[in-house]
Design brief:
- With 442 residues, this protein is α/β, with parallel strands linked by helices.
- The chain folds into 2 domains: 4-53 and 383-394 and 417-438, Urease, subunit C, domain 1, CATH 2.30.40; 56-371, TIM Barrel (Alpha-Beta Barrel).
- It is built from 13 helices and 18 strands.
- The strands form 3 sheets. Strands 1, 2, 3, 4, 5, 15, 16, 17 and 18 form a 9-stranded mixed beta sheet that branches.
C-alpha cells in the first residue's frame, strides 16, 4: 500500500513567511509532510517543477444567489469559476438567495444546495437585518462564518439594510456569541441625497454616479460602526474598502484597540472610473471605482500591511441587468471577478509593484483563515487541509470570454493580459481543476 495518496514534487512552495523549493505529501485530504525532498510511495504524483505552490485562496466575499436566483449565478458555476482561479474555499453572502439567509431554515437550504453542487469548500454568512436579531443565535449555532449587514440599501427587496438601532442591538448579540459582523459601510443619507440631486439636474454620467457615492460616505459609515464596535465589544470586519482614506480610519481604530479588520477587492486595485466610463455596467459596483491615484494608494496600503483580506466581491447578474445606456444610476451594481483574483494580484501586485508573494498568501489565505477561525486552512503545513493551488508564474495569457466559468460569461477583466496562470487546483487532496478543465470527484 502506498504511503501517501498524493505527492507534489519539485515545486516552489509559497507560505506567508517564505518561499522555498520542496515537496508536499498528502493523505486522507490532509498535508502530512512538507520537506525539501520526500522519498515515499504515493498513489498519485504531480511533478511541479517550474510551478509555484500556493495555499488555496479563501474568497471571503462572493454572491452565488442560490437557491432562488440561480439565473444570476449558481453554486456549481460559481464554485467552478473559483477553482479555475485557484480558490478552494468561499464564504457566500446571505442576501441574494431567495429567501435570504436570515434564519436557520434558509441556511440549511443553502447548505444542502452547496453540498450537492459545489466543487470547492463552501462556508456561509448569516444576515443581520431589522427583523432577525432573535435568529442570530440559531444561525451561529448552525455554522455561519459570521454576520453581514448593510448600512445602506442592499438592492435586494427582502434583505433590508440595518438602521443604527439594529446595528447596535445586533452587535451586542453577535459579541455575546463571540462572532463577527461584516459591514457594507456607505452612508444612506449622503448617497441618497447626492444621487437625487444629480438625477434632478440630469447629471447621469459615470462620473456623476461615482460622485454620488463619495469616499466621505464610506468614511462616515465606518466611523459610526466603529463607535458601535467600541461600545458593544463586537468584532468588526469592513468589506470592500475602495480607498486608503477609509483604511486609515480603520488603522486608527486598530491602534486604539478596536477589534476591526478590513477587506478590499481586486477591482479597486486594478480598475478606475475610466473603466466604468468605457465598459459601462460591467464595471459598475458599490462603492464605485475610484481614480488612478486611489488605486495606487490602496496598493501602498497593501504593501504597508494595512489591508487584512482581499475578497473578490463577485456579484454577478445577467447581461440584461448590466446594460447601461445614458444613465449610470440604472443597472445592477456588481462585478463578476471571482475567477481572476489571483491573476490580478500577481499581475498588478507581484509583477508590476513588487508586492511579495508571501504578502499575497497572507491576504488571500492565511489571514482569512485566522480571522474567521478556519483552524485547518490557509497554510501549507503538516496537519492542514490539502487545499492547494499550482501556478505557472512565467505564463502570460489573455482572458477570453470563453475562459470564464460563470453562468454569464462577462467581466470587466476580459481582454486583459495577465501573467501567472493557474494550472491545477486541489481541494482536500483531490484535483478539481487541471489545465483549463474541471475534474469531477463526486
Amino acid at each position: 500500500m502506498a504511503t501517501y495518496d498524493l505527492l507534489i514534487k519539485n515545486g516552489t512552495i509559497v507560505t506567508d513567511q517564505k518561499t522555498m523549493q520542496g515537496d508536499i505529501a498528502i493523505k486522507d485530504g490532509k498535508i502530512m509532510e512538507v520537506s525539501t525532498n520526500i522519498n515515499a510511495d504515493a498513489t498519485q504524483e504531480i511533478d511541479a517543477e517550474g510551478l509555484h505552490i500556493f495555499p488555496g485562496l479563501i474568497d471571503s466575499h462572493v454572491h452565488f444567489n442560490e437557491p432562488g436566483r440561480a439565473e444570476w449565478e449558481g453554486l456549481e458555476t460559481g464554485s467552478k469559476s473559483l477553482a479555475a482561479g485557484g480558490a478552494t474555499t468561499f464564504f457566500d453572502m446571505p442576501l441574494n438567495s431567495t429567501p435570504p439567509v436570515v434564519d436557520k431554515e434558509n441556511l440549511l437550504k443553502k447548505k444542502a444546495c452547496a453540498d450537492e453542487k459545489s466543487v470547492v469548500n463552501p462556508r456561509f454568512w448569516g444576515g443581520l437585518v431589522p427583523e432577525n436579531i432573535d435568529k442570530l443565535k440559531e444561525l451561529h449555532d448552525n455554522g455561519v462564518i459570521g454576520f453581514k449587514a448593510f448600512m445602506s440599501p442592499s438592492g435586494i427587496d427582502d434583505f433590508h439594510h440595518a438602521d443604527d438601532e439594529t446595528l447596535f442591538k445586533g452587535m451586542k448579540e453577535i459579541a455575546s456569541l463571540e462572532s463577527l459582523l461584516a459591514v457594507h459601510a456607505e452612508s444612506t443619507v449622503i448617497c441618497e441625497q447626492l444621487a437625487a440631486e444629480k438625477q434632478r439636474n440630469g447629471q447621469t454620467t459615470a462620473r456623476d454616479f461615482v460622485e454620488s457615492r463619495p469616499i466621505i460616505s464610506e468614511i462616515e459609515a465606518v466611523k459610526r460602526v466603529i463607535s458601535y464596535a467600541e461600545a458593544t465589544g463586537c468584532k468588526l470586519h469592513i468589506v470592500h474598502a475602495s480607498s486608503r482614506k477609509v483604511v486609515e480610519v480603520i488603522e486608527e481604530a486598530k491602534k486604539r484597540g478596536v477589534d476591526v479588520t478590513v477587506e478590499t477587492c481586486p477591482h479597486y486595485l486594478s480598475l478606475t472610473v475610466k473603466d466604468l466610463e468605457e465598459q459601462g455596467g460591467l464595471a459598475k459596483c458599490m462603492p464605485p471605482l475610484r481614480d488612478e491615484d486611489e488605486v495606487d494608494e490602496l496598493w501602498n496600503a497593501v504593501k504597508n500591511g494595512e489591508i487584512n483580506v482581499i475578497g473578490s466581491d463577485h456579484s454577478p447578474a445577467p447581461a440584461s441587468m448590466k446594460t447601461i445606456t445614458d444613465n449610470f444610476f440604472e443597472g445592477w451594481g456588481g462585478i463578476s471577478g471571482a475567477q481572476s483574483t489571483l491573476n490580478i494580484l500577481l499581475t498588478e501586485g507581484y509583477f508590476k509593484r513588487n508586492v511579495p508573494l508571501e504578502t499575497i498568501v497572507k491576504l488571500t489565505a492565511t489571514n482569512p483563515a485566522e480571522i474567521f477561525n478556519l483552524t485547518t486552512k490557509g497554510k501549507l503545513a503538516a496537519g492542514f487541509d490539502a487545499d492547494i493551488t499550482l501556478v505557472n508564474l512565467n505564463e502570460d495569457f489573455v482572458l477570453n470570454k470563453e475562459d470564464l466559468m460563470y453562468r454569464h460569461q462577462h467581466s470587466p477583466y476580459v481582454g486583459r493580459t495577465y501573467k501567472g496562470k493557474v494550472k491545477k487546483t486541489i481541494v482536500g487532496g483531490n484535483v478539481v481543476f487541471d489545465n483549463g478543465e474541471i475534474i469531477e470527484n463526486k
